[in-house]
């Protein structure tokens, strides 16, 4: 294998596939990046066996200025190799594989010789044996992930809750996550490619995979193609393949958890409420119980917290409108902060039923496609 | 105690004194910040008993808009209190101390009640019983610290080497640090205030204290006054006092360590050499021995490294001029990188005697007032 390429282009692709590479893997070859050179271009691969990422650079790519002199393949130690590429003195670099997988990296007057590994020993990527796919605008996909991933469980006691449940049905993508204390749900319309509109998919994708996916896909990529098989999902863009395993098991039915009526309703600017909760949480974080209280009357909305070890706090929160029954309710302020951040400063409605029933937060302008639910804390 | 103040001004002072406050102290009251309000203004104090910082805000300060309504003093939990002040909703805040050291912090509609501590229990600051002082331009003081602190030892086996030796004599400040593998030395002229020109001071100031001092003093403060007593040093600016304890014991005599002749001499741009050493060190960091080799002939200067576990590297380094005997010498690249960074990209001379004797680096334009010394590594 021998090729010449612009360092910046190569670093971009290397950075993408590195997201899948973990230093902690038990399979030594997976700490490496696989590089394959063919007539068409370069393919880089990284994997931690949960996630695999493949990135392509074609010989026609003007930014890459790629010249393949000899086809071939090698696996190089990912972290260390990428540090070298970052620090090379010139814009262009040459890579050549010699005897015994010895790989020479040259740029200007600097020359490195690295011990590579046989690319034939690198595990095979999952096979995606379906032609059926859906297309999602990149921006929308990233939004759906960021809005729901906050409610993913971080505990392995119920592994199925560490994923986001995605249901594709009737031309819509329905995404929901819950850690049993809170729930996030978003529905978006879907463009279907080569697929029977009546077909339904119901999968659970690990939250970690979706966070990495969101970080890996560039903002300037318009859309992402999604393909589902029995135990894998593949997200595809022009220059990248992103594979994730699916979680096994049945996701709990969450459809009846969201209350459909409210006895108390307040309209806020999400940013105003977030700042007030944030201030109150400073105090609750110092105590044993991380709880703040909101007292609602027709005249005022007051937030308060009492942590005897350090002190107490109270504040009148500015609101847009309030209606319904007076109420006192206590909750974990961190759940509320996570939820409020997903509204990006828009106007929101908070809908309560009683002090012991879950309450929901929805955008004022659309209470059908996006909802955050939080279970209150009993304080008596 | 009761006062009103602009939050930003207060936060600046609070940030300064917080540098001295450690969460890990064994004396609980030192996790707090002491606030004293008098007719003249506010005094904030933080201390970890090694370093103490006092910061003043006068009632005449336009930016602070300080109004003292009632004099008094309190100690508040530093980290937590500063988080609160940072997040208050309005530009201005009120602080009032009530019964049992209960302290109310108000801003807009937010109101915090904190449990304070009796300011009378706060330790007294060191007494500086000298009128003799020297004045140093802030920029120069920061430069001297950053140029010498790299060679300070981080091991407590010889505590005296964890400090910078500062000798004031004949109108000059002489600063030196060594960890016995390398040495940094800088000499600067000194403006003497109220001091007999013949008097000599010889102290060892903890490297950590000087790093904090450097971070605490604003660039826009012109000069710093320095006062020395038997076991304390005080650095004084218009609005701040910075106290540090001195290290006890005799600093080793370093004057004979610096070779006064050279058999091989190379002139480099510091940045060019730094980049090449940095590249070679990527490889040496992966091996057991963190060593790179430089081979000098009249025709070329080559750096190389060999770490059998991962590979090898070699590079011709661009130089300005080379003279003297051919030489091969090996050294720790990290010591070299630290040293080269202190020259801020200037042109430098590296002067070698033999492969087993220390070599020195000096600025081309002035080889008398600043020198970095590094001991090579024997590789045979």
Automatic annotation (TrEMBL), chains A, B:
Protein's UniProt keywords contain Transferase: yes
Assigned keywords, A-Z: Cytoplasm, DNA replication, DNA-binding, DNA-directed DNA polymerase, Nucleotidyltransferase, Transferase
Residue ranges of domain DNA polymerase III beta sliding clamp central in the record: 135-253
Primary localization: cytoplasm
One Gene Ontology cellular component annotation held by this UniProt entry: DNA polymerase III complex
A GO MF term: DNA-directed DNA polymerase activity
InterPro entries recorded: DNA_clamp_sf, DNA_polIII_beta, DNA_polIII_beta_C, DNA_polIII_beta_cen, DNA_polIII_beta_N
Domain DNA polymerase III beta sliding clamp N-terminal: 1-126
UniProt xrefs under CDD domains: beta_clamp
UniProt key word Transferase: yes
Cellular localisation: Cytoplasm
Biological process annotations from GO: DNA strand elongation involved in DNA replication
Span of the signal peptide: none
Annotated DNA polymerase III beta sliding clamp C-terminal domain residues: 256-378
Assembly with partners or alone: Forms a ring-shaped head-to-tail homodimer around DNA.
Family, similarity comment: Belongs to the beta sliding clamp family.
Function (record text): Confers DNA tethering and processivity to DNA polymerases and other proteins. Acts as a clamp, forming a ring around DNA (a reaction catalyzed by the clamp-loading complex) which diffuses in an ATP-independent manner freely and bidirectionally along dsDNA. Initially characterized for its ability to contact the catalytic subunit of DNA polymerase III (Pol III), a complex, multichain enzyme responsible for most of the replicative synthesis in bacteria; Pol III exhibits 3'-5' exonuclease proofreading activity.
Protein name: Beta sliding clamp
Organism in which the protein naturally occurs: Isobaculum melis
Source organism phylogeny: Bacteria, Bacillati, Bacillota, Bacilli, Lactobacillales
């Amino acid at each position: 294998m021998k090729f010449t390429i612009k360092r910046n282009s190569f670093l971009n692709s290397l950075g993408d596939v590195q997201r899948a590479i973990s230093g902690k893997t038990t399979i030594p070859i997976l700490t490496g990046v696989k590089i394959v050179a063919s007539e068409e271009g370069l393919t880089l691969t990284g994997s931690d066996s949960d996630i695999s990422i493949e990135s392509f650079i074609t010989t026609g790519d003007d930014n890459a200025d790629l010249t393949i002199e000899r086809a071939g393949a090698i696996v190089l130690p990912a972290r260390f190799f990428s540090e070298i590429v970052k620090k090379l003195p010139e814009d262009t670099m040459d890579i050549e594989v010699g005897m015994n997988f010895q790989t020479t990296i040259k740029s200007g007057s600097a020359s490195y010789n690295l011990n590579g590994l046989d690319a034939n020993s690198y595990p095979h990527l999952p096979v995606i044996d379906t032609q059926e796919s859906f297309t999602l605008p990149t921006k929308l996909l990233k939004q759906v992930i960021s809005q729901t991933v906050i409610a993913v469980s971080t505990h392995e006691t119920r592994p199925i809750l560490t994923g986001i449940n995605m249901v594709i049905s009737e031309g819509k993508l329905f995404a929901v996550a819950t850690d049993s204390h809170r729930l996030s749900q978003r529905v978006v319309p879907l463009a279907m490619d080569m697929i029977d509109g009546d077909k339904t998919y119901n999968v659970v994708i690990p939250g970690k995979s979706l966070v990495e996916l969101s970080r890996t896909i560039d903002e300037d990529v318009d859309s992402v193609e999604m393909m589902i098989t029995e135990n894998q999902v593949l997200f595809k863009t022009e220059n990248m393949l992103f594979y994730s395993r699916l979680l096994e098991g049945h996701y709990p039915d969450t459809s009846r958890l969201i209350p459909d009526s409210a006895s108390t309703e307040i309209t806020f600017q999400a940013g105003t409420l977030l700042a007030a909760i944030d201030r109150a949480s400073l105090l609750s974080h110092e105590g044993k119980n991380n709880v703040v209280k909101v007292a609602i009357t027709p005249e005022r909305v007051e937030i308060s917290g009492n942590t005897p070890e350090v002190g107490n706090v109270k504040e009148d929160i500015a609101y847009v409108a309030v209606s319904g029954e007076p109420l006192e309710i206590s909750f974990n302020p961190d759940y509320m902060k996570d939820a409020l951040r997903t509204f990006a400063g828009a106007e929101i409605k908070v809908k309560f039923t009683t002090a012991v029933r879950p309450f929901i937060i929805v955008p004022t302008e659309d209470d059908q496609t996006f909802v955050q639910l939080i279970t209150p804390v009993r304080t008596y």
